Amino acid sequence: CATSGNAASDGPKPLDELVVGFAQVGAESGWRTANTKDIQASFEEAGIELKFSDAQQKQENQIKAIRSYIQQQVDVIAFSPVVETGWDAVLNEAKAAGIPVVLTDRAVDSQDDSLYVSFLGSDFVAEGEKAGQWVLDEYADSSESVKIIQLEGTTGAAPAIDRAEGFAEVIAENPNLEVVASQTGDFTRAGGKQVTEALLKSNPDVDLIYAHNDDMGLGAIEAIEAAGMEPGVDIKIVTVDAVKDGMQALADGKINFIVECSPLLGKQLVDIVKQINDGEAPEKRIITEETTFTQEEAIEALPTRQY
Ligand code: AHR
Questions:
Q1: If we measure between CA atoms, which residue out of 126, 115, 40 comes closest to residue 81?
Q2: Angle at CA 244, nearest 5°, toward 238 and 250?
Q3: What is the pairing mode between strands 236-241 and 285-287?
Q4: Which atom in ligand 1 lies closest to the alpha carbon of residue 105?
Q5: pLDDT the model gives residue 11
Q6: Crossing angle (nearest 10°) for helices 88-96 and 59-71
Q7: d(CA 261, CA 258)
Q8: Domain named Periplasmic binding protein: which ranges (predicted)?
Q9: Are 80 and 24 in contact (CB under 8 A)?
Q10: What is the pTM of this model?
Q11: Ligand 1 centroid vs 278 CA: distance in angstroms?
Q12: Minimum-distance ligand 1 atom for the alpha carbon of 31
């Protein structure tokens, strides 16, 4: 029972008649702010109307926003799911209304992959593996136990699950590398600071902090300094994202290594929307290209870093 008026069912519309509804996670991190800006700017540049909602990291708000886009009969719905589970009902509603859905940044764990047309975003397991590889190499010659604290992203979110998995798989190669504590800081700076403060009390001899994003790593830096220690030296820090503040801390020697996760998904999302409008099938999985940064590489990259 496809609703009439959607780009996919009625053939190409002029771009200035297309309407896309985007349900964003929130504004929890520097990465998210850069991602929102890039998406809004890309749609403006393409001359496509973008309806935008901020779910403040709550799944129920995102579901509400998607339902309202269905009611408004937008041409395409795009969203970055706060958590992986619990999307089938609302995605089936979008499907029944004939509105194609694009996942950006984060995945859903649905068994039915006909519920979305494309998933554009990073390989979070690979990001965790890259972080783990740096730690493995850094302590390759150490015969002593290396105590690691992990600051997890939002519980149930794809990047939190996958970055933990990739990291654990790689560091398992060296039994000296031991995650002594692992807790969520919800991808925020305040969360990273609070959790680190608490965990430093129970683990004062920790060697390294692996934070699932820069913001939590930046919060950890504040907690380490407040405890009278030197971040990057007394306690090493590895993070994911490579946003400007993270890169600055890396260049300043307070973070030791960053795995890049690019928030610049706007142009590729516009391309997917245009393909759908033209009646073409976009690729089901589009993986973002990403690199890693050492302290020296951060000094070089910082002056031209866009976000
Ligand atoms: O889903 C991407 C993650 O979400 C980013 O790494 C993090 O900073 C953000 O909040």
A1: 115
A2: 35
A3: unpaired
A4: 1
A5: 74
A6: 10
A7: 9
A8: 21-280
A9: yes
A10: 0.95
A11: 31
A12: 8
Give the DSSP H or E segment for 178: strand 177-184
Under 8 Å between Cβ of 12 and 274: no
Q: CA neighbours within 13 Å on the CB side: how many for 23?
A: 30
In angstroms, what is the span from residue 282 Cα to ligand 1's centroid? 24
**Angular region, 79: left φ>0, alpha ψ -120 to 50, beta rest:** beta
Identify whether the C-beta of residue 243 lies closer than 8 Å to the C-beta of residue 307.
yes
Q: How far apart are CA 45 and CA 156, in angstroms?
A: 34
158 CA: nearest ligand 1 atom? 1
Residues in contact with ligand 1 by the CB-under-6-Å rule are: 28-29, 31-32, 105-106, 159, 187, 213, 215, 240-241, 261
Looking at ligand 1, which atom is closest to the CA of residue 159? Answer: 1
Looking at every residue in the chain, the average pLDDT score rounds to: 96
- Do residues 116 and 102 lie in contact, with contact meaning Cβ atoms separated by under 8 Å? yes
The per-residue pLDDT for range 226-266, each reduced to its tens digit, is: 999 999 999 999 999 999 999 999 999 999 999 999 999 99
CA of 158 to the centre of ligand 1 (A): 10
What pLDDT is attached to residue 115?
A: 98
Distance 213 CA to ligand 1 centre (A): 6
Q: Work out which ligand 1 atom sits closest to the CA atom of 28.
A: 10
Predicted ipTM of the assembly? 0.99
User: Could you tell me which residues come within 8 angstroms of residue 228 by beta carbon, excluding any fewer than 6 positions away?
Assistant: none
> What are the DSSP calls for 190-223, one per residue?
HHHHHHHHHHHHH-TT--EEEESSHHHHHHHHHH
How many angstroms separate the alpha carbon of residue 157 from the centre of ligand 1? 9
Q: What is the pLDDT of residues 257-291, one digit of tens each?
A: 999 999 999 999 999 999 999 999 999 999 999 99
Q: How far is the CA of 17 from the centre of ligand 1 (A)?
A: 31
